[in-house]
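Taste receptor type 2
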Amino acid sequence: MFLVMIIGLILGIELIIGIIANGLMIVVNCSEWIRSRKLTGCDMILTSLGISRFFLQWTIFINNILFQLSEDMNKLCAMTKILTVVWIFLNILNLWFATWLSVFYCVKIANFSQPLFLWLKRRISGLVPQLLMGSFLVSLVTCLPSVNAIDIKYIDNSMNNLSGNTTGKCQYKSDLSFSLFVLSMLGYSSPFIIFIISSILLITSLWRHSKRMEKTTGSSRDTITEAHVRAIKGLFSFIFFHISYFVALVIFLLQFSTISSYLLWIVIMGAYPSGHSVILILGNPKLKGVAVRALHYIRRFPSRGLLLVDSDRGPC
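Tokens:
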């Protein structure tokens, strides 16, 4: 029971941080769009990512609230099935959006002379809306088969309860055929593969640029190198969250874990949409500046002691 309470507290903190961080990205970028009637490609991806994660966090929150308030367990289990499908859709969608953000960084910062890469560098900002819409459709197609594969039913255990109290639970069961399993893994692994490719290209570009700078000026540090380094730091944080999230998600879906480890995987999955969004805010000067001003405003109230951070240049 104590372990469950601790994990519940951690999940609650992750949920609050995620809602605030992603809500900040949405409000700041939507306010800029209302004011100027346009958004950069980077801001469009950040806004879409924030929206998908914001609704993902609220889906988890609503699901937990329903378990506390609902008295009709049959309706609760039916609602849980709907929320589970929505959760799968939003999971895949935010993985795609985060991947396109990494690709955007790579194309804008890396330097390669290949015609395809040069074409992408010129067109990537204009391609962002199509990439986002394509990700939405791919995520929808990937999650729809799970509607029939997931079966959540109410199991009444009152007959086995010696104390006479009525007990019951929603039992989760997934009927994953081979084709559905392959489709699900493609949905989760495809954006990760694209992300790995973009990361390798960006690191290769940094290595080549550093070698070229050492030969010409004797130094490996310049503004382009700094841009590479900042982008790679963001990518490394993403790869850490993405790998841990992907592994936890696969184990969770295949139901290989015990109850205690099951809760651990939930915590790991909850850290990704919250922690990565915080890192994105700290790496974006506009979002970071708004967050600093918000913290400065909060410090005027009795709840003091919040730490402030100075803004600096980021990849976007």
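The CA atoms of residues 96 and 134 lie 10 Å apart.
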